[in-house]
Amino acid sequence: MATIDDLLRGAQLVRTIDAPPRAGLELEHLAAWNALARRARRVLDAVPGTPSAADDAISDNLKRLESRGGRALAAGGVEAEAGILGVALRLGAVADLLADRDLNGSLVRPSDGDHLRARVYGTLYRTAAYTVPAIAPHRAGWQDVLELAHLTKGYRDVRQEAGSPLEDLAAPGARHPGLEDVAFRWERAASRAVLDSQTRLTLETVAADLAILSASCTVLGVALRDRMPGLEPQVEALVAAGQRAHGMWTRLSRWPDLMTYPGARPTGLSEASLQLRGEVQRALRPGGRWASPEELLAASPPSALLDAARRLAASNRRVGADFAVAFDGLGRGTRLWAPYRSSEPATGYVRKSPRWVDLDDAARSSVASMRADAASALTASKDLAGRADEITRARVSWRSRNAPAQGLGDGRSPATRIEAEEALLVRRGPGPDRGPRPSR
Amino acid sequence: MASEVELADEQLWALAYGHVLQARRQMLDAAVDPLGDHCFANAVLLDAENGFELLGITPAVVPVQHSPSFSVESALALLKEVADAAEAHRLRKILLPFRSESWEA
Description:
Chain A is an all-alpha fold. Chain A has helices at 4-9, 26-46, 53-74, 82-100, 110-131, 142-152, 179-196, 200-224, 232-252, 267-284, 293-299, 302-329, 361-402, 414-428; strands at 259-260, 338-339, 350-351, 353-357. In chain A, the strands form two sheets. Chain A has a two-stranded antiparallel sheet with strand order 1-2. Chain A starts with a helix and ends in a 12-residue tail after the last helix. Chain B is mainly alpha-helical. Chain B has one domain (2-99). Chain B has helices at residues 2-30, 39-54, 72-85, 92-95. In chain B, helix 1 crosses helix 2 (39-54) and helix 1 (2-30) runs antiparallel to helix 3 (72-85).
């Protein structure tokens, strides 16, 4: 399952600085920039937040590149450069993922949008640096590419690793669904069910599944103990939050005998629930017991376990929010619950259906208590997701401060390489005082 | 057993449904389960309840005090017995998972 994080990691073109420039390929490169510029703008438009003047300058530059690329394509017989097309393809997928989600309704911090935008700018910088040697100086498009490199130069050191929940958005894979993929599909089925097909079994099933997801996050958190140096308190908080959420959702998975809301659950929910449980068992519970930390760590590195915990917690939070909305609507107005073991209403009068009756005082008290439980469970789920996000952010920050510079496989440190690219750009392009500069 | 199932029909299903409800209640009320070891048994019992709801069966009352030996295991054993007996019955498809060893209590 490719996430936005995966897609951006795979969109980093690396130019071999020692290779001789391959001038004369400007049409091929510009033709590919037509697709890349258009898709990059789609991504940037979809990122939450208000663009700054520097963002607008980059967007204007991309428009010019798109236009120049269009003219290159119109010349005919031009085959767009494959490496840049690969970047364009990935950015297009990122744009689709962002557009597919209702970001306005999700809990996105302004800094989350900033981090994603910075990663896209870093990607554009590298791609521009890849193109510069291919275009002969002062040919059409050369100035635009150089200007884009300068506009995005401030983001060249941005680490291409997830730093916000936005970057966890993922497309389900078609061939080999994994746990997070299945959770993604379950999320849709569960949200639809709790909002559109409310019965006791629907709501109990979703609550039971949310309890399983919470327990899964706890198990992943336990495996991360002692594996996140400097972040031990945060990991302990994640484990505790998972246990709290599990307890709250389990409580909601069994209604009091007094109350019911008759009817089966939707088939889609049944299938998604079975699939989710099967995948949790396969990934985290082989042999009918939760995997030990050693077993989990033998199969996946701590970073992968943290990613999984964060994604599962995010699914938990989103469905938990829909669940709370659905629960809040129950027991109000004409949506009334019937007492168990009664074909006739115990009190009150029938409305719409023999199964919908007025609630007596005891029933009203039960409804109020369950509604309060649903609100508490959602609070627990939000806390769980927040803890997972917190660890991810702290980990990224901690690694940035403490990780030694790592080579890229060619014996050079990133700084040296970036400096070399910068030197080339400065040598071939406008001076650092030319063109707008990023404000961040 | 097959003929008994066909004859008993509604009452038997109502009794099985009542047992499943009681099993789940008992398990969740009694369990101290911080790591979620009972999550999956809970979900399996919900699957069974859904099967009964699909058939429009109303659960029979199974008071705890009348079932001193009642447990999740006994409810699931009953479900398996009913599922095995329901081979030619309309419940066969719904109860099929309970004949399998693949699910986990």
